[in-house]
Amino acid sequence: MSQERLKIEVAQAALKHVEDGMLLGVGTGSTVNAFIDQLAASGKRLEAAVSSSEATTERLKAIGVRVVELNHTGDLELYIDGADEVDEHKRLIKGGGGALTREKIIAGASRRFVCIVDASKCRPILGEFPLPIEVIPMARSFVARQLAKLGGQPALREGFTTDNGNLILDVRNLDLIDPVAMEDRINRIPGVVCCGLFAHRPADTVLVASEDGIQSR
Ligand SMILES: O=C[C@H](O)[C@H](O)[C@H](O)COP(=O)(O)O
C-alpha cells in the first residue's frame, strides 16, 4: 500500500474520534491534509476549528469549516495532528512543516491529542529526523552555538519563515535518549521560541497505519 493510501486510512480512523458539533484543534501537514479531505467527505459538521497554520486554515475554510482563534475559545476537547517521529511513549518530533509552535500551543490547550501517522514514523528512540527548533531571527547564530554545545549539528532551514515570522534550525545528532530533559535544556536557551520535541506533552493516542491495518496505541 502506498504511503498516500496509509495517510488516507489513518485519517479515516481519526474521524471516529470526531463528533458533530465539536470544537476541534487541527494540525498541519500532509497527513492532516488527508484528514481534512476525509472530514469533508464524511459530512460531519464541526462547531468550529482552531488551526495550527495558515495552510490548514485555508484548507479548512475551503471545506466550509469555521476557523476561530484560540484566544476566543476555552480548552479544546480534541486535537488531531500528524508527526515526523513517534516513540513507544507517544513522545513526538514535530515541525517538519514548520508549524511546531502553534501545534504545541494547541496540543497544550487540548484535553485529548490524537496523533495520526503511518508506520514509517515509528521509532524506538527519537532523533533520526532532524529536530526542528523555531528561533527569533536575531538569535539564530547564538542559539545555533548553544545547540552545538549540547552536541547537535544545527542547519538553518534556507528560505523558510514560519507563520510567526521566525526561522527554523533543523538539528541533527542530539542525544534524545531522555527527550523530556532535552526539551527542557533547549527551552532554556534564550531566543528559542519552541522546540519540536513533544515530550512534556506527548500524544494521548497514536493511530498508526500499516499494511496490517490501523493500530491504536
Ligand atoms: O510542522 C509540521 C507538523 O509538525 C507535521 O505534523 C509533521 O511535519 C508531519 O507532517 P506530515 O504528515 O506531512 O508527514
From TrEMBL:
<dbReference type="GO" id="GO:0006014">
    <property type="term" value="P:D-ribose metabolic process"/>
</dbReference>
<keyword id="KW-0413">Isomerase</keyword>
<dbReference type="InterPro" id="IPR020672">
    <property type="entry name" value="Ribose5P_isomerase_typA_subgr"/>
</dbReference>
<feature type="binding site">
    <location>
        <begin position="94"/>
        <end position="97"/>
    </location>
    <ligand>
        <name>substrate</name>
    </ligand>
</feature>
<dbReference type="InterPro" id="IPR004788">
    <property type="entry name" value="Ribose5P_isomerase_type_A"/>
</dbReference>
<feature type="active site" description="Proton acceptor">
    <location>
        <position position="103"/>
    </location>
</feature>
<feature type="binding site">
    <location>
        <begin position="81"/>
        <end position="84"/>
    </location>
    <ligand>
        <name>substrate</name>
    </ligand>
</feature>
<comment type="function">
    <text>Catalyzes the reversible conversion of ribose-5-phosphate to ribulose 5-phosphate.</text>
</comment>
<feature type="binding site">
    <location>
        <position position="121"/>
    </location>
    <ligand>
        <name>substrate</name>
    </ligand>
</feature>
<dbReference type="GO" id="GO:0009052">
    <property type="term" value="P:pentose-phosphate shunt, non-oxidative branch"/>
</dbReference>
<comment type="pathway">
    <text>Carbohydrate degradation; pentose phosphate pathway; D-ribose 5-phosphate from D-ribulose 5-phosphate (non-oxidative stage): step 1/1.</text>
</comment>
<dbReference type="GO" id="GO:0004751">
    <property type="term" value="F:ribose-5-phosphate isomerase activity"/>
</dbReference>
<dbReference type="Pfam" id="PF06026">
    <property type="entry name" value="Rib_5-P_isom_A"/>
</dbReference>
<dbReference type="GO" id="GO:0005829">
    <property type="term" value="C:cytosol"/>
</dbReference>
<comment type="similarity">
    <text>Belongs to the ribose 5-phosphate isomerase family.</text>
</comment>
<comment type="subunit">
    <text>Homodimer.</text>
</comment>
<dbReference type="InterPro" id="IPR037171">
    <property type="entry name" value="NagB/RpiA_transferase-like"/>
</dbReference>
<feature type="binding site">
    <location>
        <begin position="28"/>
        <end position="31"/>
    </location>
    <ligand>
        <name>substrate</name>
    </ligand>
</feature>
<protein>
    <recommendedName>
        <fullName>Ribose-5-phosphate isomerase A</fullName>
        <ecNumber>5.3.1.6</ecNumber>
    </recommendedName>
</protein>
